[in-house]
Amino acid sequence: MKRIALLHTVPSVFLSFAERIRTALPGEDLNIHNTLDEFLASDANVRGFTRNNRNRLFHLLKAIELEEPDVIAVTCSTLTPEVARIRPFLSVPLIAIDDAMTKKAVTLGSKITVMATAQSTIEPTCQKLLEEAAKIGRKVELSHMVCHDAYEAIKQMNQSAHDAILRKAAGGIHGQDVVVLAQASMAHMEKELAAICGVPVLSSPALCVKQIVHTLYLS
Predict the structure, then answer these.
(1) Distance CA 38, CA 8 (A)
(2) Of 129, 15, 30, 26, which Cα lies nearest the Cα of 77?
(3) What digits encode the pLDDT tens for the residues 13-30?
(4) Could you tell me if 104 and 186 lie in one domain?
(5) CATH (domain of 154)
(6) What is the pLDDT of residues 151-166, one digit of tens each?
(7) Residue 140 confidence (pLDDT)
(8) CA 104/CA 154 separation, integer angstroms
């Protein structure tokens, strides 16, 4: 049996991510444990990621480590910079939701728009893109778009309003090589937004699931 621990900050991702993994590994005997901490994202969106938030995340991940998982995945891109800092202090593989997505994005072109609903995800996603671009020697031109009303809609579990806001915003994206969806809660809109924008649109969950599978069986 493979043991997977997931840390979420958004209820809609909490409710769907484990099923993505089970779909990718049909017939496998999996023990998937989910932890939801909405505070880490909501507070960061208002006050930034404070020292107390860093300590909270560190101790939460150390507690999850006690579950003895084979891998831990954090499904919130706001937490990605801290995941990288905490990784050396854990004895099990620790994956950030956008590791694989940002790595792929910088191979698709130099003009990249980051689309988000929470302001707190913009800086870590852009920083991650710059880091991945530097690794392959590519200079990238980043722009971003934050749909604040969509964030409020998803907090209220109003999926239709969230999606409508994203569709409207995507219509204003022009002249880009690729669009990156900064949050896992936006992933279901990937194909629809790609049709609107006319360029590749990347979301993190499917690519993250592939990374989890690789870590479990091929590392």
Answers:
(1) 8
(2) 129
(3) 898 999 999 999 999 999
(4) yes
(5) 3.40.50.1860
(6) 899 888 899 999 999 9
(7) 97
(8) 27
Q: Are 9 and 3 in contact (CB under 8 A)?
A: no
Q: What local confidence, expressed as pLDDT, does residue 10 receive?
A: 87
Kindly report the number of other CB atoms within 10 A of residue 84's CB atom. 16
Please count the structural domains in the chain.
2
- The domain in which residue 70 lies consists of 2-97+206-217
- Considering the domain architecture, whether residues 170 and 152 belong to the same structural domain is answered as yes
**64 is written with which tokens?**
């999850």
Closest CA to 111 of 167, 180, 183, 166: 180
136 and 210 belong to one structural domain: no
Question: Residue 157: its pLDDT value, please?
Answer: 86
Average pLDDT over residues 58-86: 96
Which tokens is 158 given?
């109003």
